[in-house]
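pasting for ref
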Amino acid sequence: MLGIVAAVLFFIAFLINAADIGTNEVFSSVNVMLLGLTVLALHVAGVGAGWGGRGRRR
């Protein structure tokens, strides 16, 4: 799930940069890209993966 969020943030950063949209400093393309990198790092680290190893025992 976090990988998809990172991809969306990268796409938004690309659109801001490609369309040369004037935004304030908080939502600049570089800041959105850095947010995407942070989310991608969390995804690679396994955050948000859930427990997964717990099943029914008989």
